[in-house]
Design a protein that fits this description.
With 205 residues, this protein is an alpha/beta fold. The chain has helices at residues 17-28, 43-50, 69-80, 104-117, 139-155, 169-186, 191-194, and strands at 4-8, 33-37, 55-61, 88-94, 121-127, 160-163. Bound molecules: flavin mononucleotide (FMN).
């Protein structure tokens, strides 16, 4: 039985940055890990694992300054179906913006859940520029912090960490704007089309 249950709560879990962050964590972890892509169908399966592990690690993206709704629903499920033994809850949260502090509210939300429901809080890693950093020469910065958080959990010496790309805000905004314009182009969509609200339409007018 694995000692750490890792729950990837990204709504695009199978293709997510969170999946890569979770994999890096597993590679560095001295403790054995079990990995789950969170879905509405596996709440019970994950909850049953929690009785048999010592640590729960949530890995997820920031969505609208908050935890993703799928994670919120899982927390509600845990409130209704609490494990008999509460694991220590640690967090790796990543956001698109440069500032890692954008993740503060999401971390507070999880800490509130833990304090109301008697889960001990472990380590926290807040990642800024989480969509981009792994594809840049700064990837080593985030890998280094994930290694630290993995060791902190195995040694039970919990830490609060953060990282982001060491760029000026202007440089980051310019680079990310170009990235999304090119992404749109490769999907046959112009910048002007992306600036409309008609994101769900097949043909944007
Ligand atoms: C619907 C939606 C809402 C988002 N909201 C925020 C936000 O409020 N702040 C932010 O910095 N990034 C935001 N992002 C960016 C994601 O946090 C970022 O792309 C992250 O790397 C996605 O991680 P994932 O691949 O693990 O899902 C949002 C992305 C989406 C799709």
């Amino acid at each position: 039985m694995a000692e750490i249950t890792i729950v990837n709560a990204s709504p695009r879990a199978p293709k997510s940055n969170s999946k890569i962050y979770a994999q890096i964590f597993s590679d560095y972890s001295d403790l054995s890990t079990d990995y789950f892509n969170l879905s509405p169908k596996n709440h019970l399966e994950i909850a049953q694992k929690l009785d048999k592990c010592n640590h729960l690690l949530f890995v997820f993206p920031l969505y609208a300054d908050s935890i993703p709704v799928g994670l919120l629903n899982f927390l509600k499920f845990l409130e209704q179906n609490p494990p008999q033994k509460k694991p220590v809850v640690s967090v790796i949260v990543n956001c698109g913006f440069l500032e890692y502090s954008q993740n503060d509210i999401a971390v507070q939300q999880l800490k509130l859940f833990c304090s109301i429901n008697d889960y001990p809080v472990g380590s926290v890693l807040k990642i800024g520029s989480g969509e981009a950093i792994l594809d840049t020469p700064f990837a080593f910065l985030v890998k280094r912090k994930i290694k630290k958080i993995a060791h902190s959990i195995s040694k039970k010496r919990y830490v609060n960490l953060h990282t982001t790309m060491p760029l000026f805000k202007k440089t980051f905004i310019k680079a990310s704007t170009n990235f999304w314009i090119n992404k749109g182009k490769s999907n046959g969509i112009t910048k002007e089309q992306m600036e409309t609200m008609k994101i769900e339409d097949d043909k944007v007018v």
